[in-house]
Amino acid sequence: MRIKLLNTALCLLFTAAGLHAQETDYGAGAANVRFIPSQGLLGGRTDFDCLRLKNHPAASGVPLGGIGAGNVQFAPDGRFVRIGMNNIHLPIRKSTGSFFTLWHRNGGTADARRLVRDTLVQYGMEGVSTTYYTGLFPRAELDPGEVFPGVKVRIRACSPLIAHNVKDSSLPLAFFDVELESAEGGETAVAFSWEDFIGRGIREPESIEGMDGQLFGQGRNELCNGEEWPERPLEQTFARTWECGAMAGVRQFAAGPLQPKRANFQNYVDEVAVLAQTDSATRLSALTAYDLAAGDEAWEAFRRNGEFEATDDGVA
């Protein structure tokens, strides 16, 4: 069984870096020692298999989205981190409400696991204990191994980066291909949860007075330092089931366009669609919105039967 997921409003802004054939570790040693503490000091292991990282730290991952359109990063533990969909220079550190989940029933026993490496129980579902990760921009692959006896899953993510094609490489898209393999038979399902980031994490100046033209000299930091700007008030958002050709899923959206205070090149995402490819062999159900702080009840039907009960469209 294979399920493909498409998120039509995940975005990406990145800078290209050259790879040198003579660097056998692709700079991994220099990067890894920065994030793994050893005896309370900066430094740590460097003996990583860079093409199959086992249980690797997840401060960052492969950025997904379109060139110049913001980004989200798919991390080595299965989380989404450094969410910068709104072209914000201070991305949201990580999401607890964005994850893949695998459900399986063989005979009368059913179970669901979040495909995130942690020791928590969230919405009645445990995480996984082991992950293997391959990050080769613009592609990433997460392999949690055998999640249930005889059941394996692999998630492949990629962005539309096409050589010599700036227009299509700028589309704010991220693709996920979920491959399931079961040696024991039974029923299997995959769910994808996406947190509402529309209008979140945006900081704007209280006033744009004095910000025209180039700013130099005294007072520049007070005007330009976005870390000190207040956070933009949250926007009211909504969620609806949505179909688009052979894709179906959920569309999140704000009541109207989110206008920046300044007339510059920055734009804010005002809608996101999470869509799955449908065919005669796939049964699709959708939970349009749920409260992240109280999601146990919302996920109960999926934990039991591998699908969501029909819900009314509503506030995200």
Q: Could you give the count of β-strands? A: 20
Stretches where pLDDT is under 50 for at least 5 consecutive residues are 1-23
- Taken as a percent bin, the fraction of beta residues is 25-35%
| Class per helix and strand makeup | mainly beta
What would you report as the Rg, rounded to the nearest angstrom? 21 Å
Q: What's the main sheet like?
A: 11 strands, antiparallel
What is the H/E string?
Answer: EHEEEEEEEEEEEEEHEEHEEEHE
Instruction: Quote the average pLDDT.
Output: 81
What general outline do the C-alpha atoms trace? globular
Number of helices: 4
Detail the topology: elements first, then pairings.
Layout: E1 2-7, H1 28-35, E2 53-54, E3 62-64, E4 71-74, E5 80-84, E6 92-94, E7 99-106, E8 109-117, E9 121-122, E10 125-128, E11 132-136, E12 139-143, E13 146-148, E14 151-158, H2 166-169, E15 174-182, E16 187-193, H3 220-224, E17 237-244, E18 247-254, E19 271-277, H4 296-305, E20 314-315
Parallel strand pairs: 8-10
Antiparallel strand pairs: 1-15, 1-19, 2-11, 3-4, 4-5, 5-6, 7-8, 7-16, 9-10, 11-12, 12-14, 13-14, 14-15, 17-18, 17-20, 18-19
